[in-house]
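Title: Comparing notes on inverse folding

I've been comparing how different people in this forum approach sequence design from structure. To keep things fair, I'm posting one structure and asking everyone to reply with a full sequence. Here's the target:
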């Protein structure tokens, strides 16, 4: 197992690199979902890059902040509802 988050195995990764000519970071992610899990490639990027024969690819995986779960209720909250009366937001 190369990518534990997305359950991508070695055979799938190497097969995609050969048959689909997935040579770049973006094409590997689209073809196999490697590096798209919660760790955003922080755990599997080096191994994935080494397996496809281009160690420089690992740099393209870790440029995103770590994914953090957000509850739907937090997204639905009205930020102005928590403002004190008489303030500019209220």
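Reply #1:
Here's my take.
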């Amino acid at each position: 197992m190369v990518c534990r988050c997305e359950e991508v195995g070695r055979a799938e990764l190497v097969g995609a690199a050969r048959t689909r000519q997935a040579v770049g970071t973006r094409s590997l992610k689209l073809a196999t979902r490697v590096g798209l899990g919660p760790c955003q490639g922080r755990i599997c990027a080096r191994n994935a890059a080494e397996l496809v024969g281009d160690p420089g690819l690992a740099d393209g995986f870790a440029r995103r902040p770590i994914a953090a779960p957000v509850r739907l209720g937090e997204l639905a909250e009205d930020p102005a509802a928590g403002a004190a009366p008489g303030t500019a937001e209220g």
